[in-house]
Write a structure and sequence with these properties.
single chain, mainly alpha, Fumarate Reductase Cytochrome B subunit, 5 helices, 73% helix, 0% strand, globular, disordered N terminus, Di-haem_cyt_TM, cell membrane, transmembrane helix, electron transfer activity
């Protein structure tokens, strides 16, 4: 079966399971943004949040068992751009953890925390939307041959 990964992902050591988890998380996050923007789907935001918590925990377990699927930012032997990508992934998953925790606490936490959890939850979602847009922009840019040669060339 041919590798259909975009050029910029070919240097990553992601397994098929990593890729399915990646795209499942991406689709859930995108769907959650839609559910906030469209009032009739608001309850789906919470329901999808539970699924996203499960996917996130599965991702954490998979990372412990099989590694990250991307270049760890502490790998000194890796090219600088790949280490930067590793830091971005770590920042993304940290931001996602904050969004998931505050969303869960908004629904199930003590009444005294609801307002502060909502504030942090909303701010964390802005971060995730900006991150997703930046990642899509990077992916489009990375597919251009001049960028790919400049970033991933050995010399």
């Amino acid at each position: 079966m041919p590798d259909l990964s975009p050029f910029y992902l070919k240097h990553m050591k992601a397994t098929t399971v990593h890729k399915y988890l990646h795209w499942s998380i991406a689709l859930c996050v995108c769907f959650m943004v839609i559910t906030i923007a469209w009032e009739p789907l608001r309850q789906w935001h919470v329901t999808t949040g539970y699924g996203l918590i499960a996917l996130y925990l599965l991702r954490v377990v998979l990372t412990k068992l099989r590694g990250t699927g991307y270049t760890p930012p502490f790998a000194r032997s890796a090219p600088m751009l790949q280490r930067v990508e590793g830091w971005l992934y770590m920042l993304f998953y940290a931001g996602l953890a904050v969004a998931l925790y505050t969303g869960y606490m908004r629904v199930h936490g003590p009444e005294s925390l609801v307002e502060s959890m909502l504030w942090v939850h909303i701010k964390s979602m802005y971060y995730l939307v900006v991150f997703i847009l930046a990642q899509v922009g990077y992916a489009v840019l990375a597919e251009t041959s001049w960028f790919s040669r400049a970033v991933y060339s050995k010399g």
